[in-house]
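--- STAGE predict ---
source: upstream dedup step, 1 unique chain passed
mode: sequence only
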Amino acid sequence: MKTIFAELQNYAMETAKELKKNVPKKWTTKEAYEKGSAYCAYQERTQQHVRDKLYSHGLHSNEVEDLICKLVTDNFINEERYAKSYAGGKFRQKMWGKVKIKAALKFEGLSDYCIKKGLAEIHPDDYAKTMEKVMANRAKKEAEKNPLKRKFKIANYVISRGFENDLVWEMINQMTND
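--- STAGE serialize ---
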């Protein structure tokens, strides 16, 4: 009986040590500002990203909100700039359409104004070229022989990439008429 109790006690102590290792250190306000400014300088962040980071290091709500105000004032956090960077990056790198980018920015908690500014970074000619490129790449990979099913599968894929339904079908109909 004593050995089982001793084993349980040792296990509990080891577990407590492991938990202490995983708990982030509580920051002072000065440390939090320095770390927060470095966190924002590394890459664009939203207020919510910074808020989550600060809360995870033991700061209280009034301290967090004061720090966020200071970071916004010092231009470390700028959600409009974040939206432009995010939209441009997802469009160029991942070839996402405006619908998918808008949904992702909405999920990040950005305002409609910031989302609109971010989407304005995408030039209409580049948008059409990218949609055409995504469509052509999918058409090369599509094995379906039936032309109607093939069109539907290609359109469905391009729409799932975030391009507008009406634009996709318009381009597919132009491609098949040519």
